[in-house]
Amino acid sequence: MSIKVLIVFSNSLFSEGVLRLFEDVGDIEVVGILDVGASPGKIIESLKPDVILVDLTALYNVFVDFDETPGINFILFDTCCGEDNIISAVISKEIKGLILANTPPDLLMKSIRSVARGEVWLDKSTVKNLITGMNAIRKNSKSPMLTKREKEIVALVGKGFKNKEIAQKLYISEPTVKTHLHRVFQKLNVRNRPQLITYVLNNHDIYQKNL
After folding, report:
1. Cβ-count burial of 6 within 10 angstroms (0-12 exposed, 13-18 middle, 19+ buried)?
2. What is the pLDDT of residue 98?
3. Do 97 and 106 contact (CB within 8 A), yes or no?
4. Could you tell me the domains of the chain?
5. Within 13 Å, how many C-alpha atoms sit on residue 1's CB side?
6. What are 211's strand-pairing partners?
7. Other CB atoms closer than 10 Å to residue 16's CB: what's the count?
8. Across 33-51, average pLDDT
9. pLDDT for 115
10. What is the pLDDT at residue 211?
11. Which of 127, 144, 123, 128 is nearest to 190 (CA)?
12. Is residue 91 pLDDT above 90, yes or no?
């Protein structure tokens, strides 16, 4: 039985280019290309893809409110959107695979087969940064006191929202969000958003009311 793949990229030309890579692959079938402006629910229910190939823009625009569906696995294409953003997405969206945009076709196929089997496929540099972030978080054995507003912001960061989106949701300015995050970083002894998200995941009981 073929592995069903759905392509969801913000760049249509990139989507078409990736599609051509599957022309001579017998065990992997591209069942469709989803536009960024489309609603994924009914399409995924109809096509039943095993793996969804997605870039960061599509991930946060198409699947921002999409509930996790059993049997669906996301592979994120790193299109040079920034290390922190990629690591944040891997953690907050439970990405099962991460590959570089210039990954050779044979490795792309291997990553799809691996993820379809229930395994995780991550770029080595990302794994290194995730481990570094988690080790830094574990050094904080105590949970410092955060204000109610800081907890709200931390919870939204944990969901993958950017500063501008957080400001809109909480009806505050973007500079205010940055100020709060700076204080949070100091209190929690973290250096960046991925480490902050890791902290939230390790201390879910503290932030579950806001998540």
Report:
1. buried
2. 85
3. no
4. 3-122 (3.40.50.2300), 140-207 (1.10.10.10)
5. 6
6. none
7. 12
8. 81
9. 92
10. 45
11. 144
12. no
SS3 58: helix
**CA quadruple 190, 191, 197, 202: dihedral sign:** negative
Residue 126, number of CB atoms within 10 A of its CB = 20
- 181 is written with which tokens? 């995050």
Q: What is the pTM of this model?
A: 0.61
Instruction: Write out the two tokens for 113.
Output: 């087969």
Token output for 122: 């991550």
CA-to-CA distance for 211 and 112, rounded, in angstroms?
Answer: 30
Q: Which amino acid is at 162?
A: K
What Å distances lie between residue 127 and 94, 132, 147, 163, 206, CA to CA? 14, 9, 32, 25, 26
Q: 112 pLDDT band (50/70/90 cuts)?
A: very high
User: What's the pLDDT tens digit per position in 159-202?
Assistant: 778 899 999 999 999 999 999 999 998 888 888 887 787 777 76
| CB proximity list for 85: less than 8 A, separation 6 or greater | 56, 193
**DSSP conformational letter for 172:** -
For residue 3, what are the CA distances in angstroms to 6, 51, 85, 100, 112? 10, 8, 29, 21, 8
Q: What's the whole-number average pLDDT of the chain?
A: 79
